[in-house]
Amino acid sequence: MEFVLSFPIRVEFGLGISRRVGEIAKQKDWKRTLIITDAELVRAGILSGIKESLESNNIEYSVFDKVVPNPTDISVEEAAEIVKEAKCDFLTGVGGGSSMDTAKGSALLATNPGRIGNYENNPFKNHLLPLITIPTTAGTGSEVDFWAVITDTERKFKMALGQSPPYPGGPYLGAVASLIDPLLSRTLPPKLTASTGIDAFSHAIETFTARDSTPIVAPLSLHAIRLITQWLPIAYANGEDVAARENMMFASMVAGICENYANCGAVHSLAEALGGIYGTVPHGVAIGIFLPEVMEFNYIAVPEKYIEIAETMGENLVGFPHYEAAREAVETVRRMLEMLDMPSTLKEIQIKPEDLSEIAVRAIKTVEIPGNPRKITEKDLLAILEEVYE
Hints:
This protein is of the alpha/beta class. About 45% of the residues lie in helices and about 10% in strands. It starts with 9 loop residues before the first strand and ends with a helix.
């Protein structure tokens, strides 16, 4: 058994905790920040408490609100230039995974040379500009992981950039502090609640079953699966349920931490490949379409783990033959997706059938593929794509 456990991010979790941002900046003697977010959150007034906290602690700020779904290298580099011009000494990422990833990329380029694409497969040497992450969705877990997914606009390819600390105290692609405030997710619409929640669900399932999964991951990922199974339908049905929002934010955070110590697999490979070509398709929607079919492909490779997933989701498997018990995890996930009214086919989200081959070609090249618990080929990926097309 061999693994490395390094988690240098300070996490503060609780109702209203986002209003601590100014106090933390003052304690660190930081003076100016760029808030990286999206225009919709600005219009919704989500930033009001964060701004008040910064103002009351005499922290100067400006707002970059051009974050887009499936963030691009162009937006990352634009934000990084503003950071340098404004001479910010820290960044604040507020929003979903797109805001978190844009903030990480900008923090990287603020202290390291070149363009963001230079770091797709190359390590960086300098610590990021200090970053505070404040999530408003329970989905990506990007607020606490060492990854950022950025679309290369020329290639139409989603680059997965990642770096955990290469040595104690070394540079990593992540925040120095994360303020996780469930109250910020209360206004998230039902469809976004479902799709972001399913992304977190997939992180938990994929890291638990991954080929490189370590013993530290199993209890965390299973706990996230249990919480999401219980609380996501409630959050979807009633966004004002604070207990549901709190448990979903916690589960998303836990699943995000798991991503630091185990890879995902073909679900995320396919979703990212599709998202590179179809930039407007929400990541969680693509995840929901691919998740059950990839599980169908994988369950015979790790049946014991799939049995644990089904049992964690509340299934009584007494009397089931071994592999039928394992496959029940797939059916339980399908039922959950149906409960959340998630799209189940690529045709529903206007994917062109002639693009399926290209999606498979791109998916096999992603960094997540080696984590898939069953060896998978480009031909297998294309078969999955064809199965979920309609």
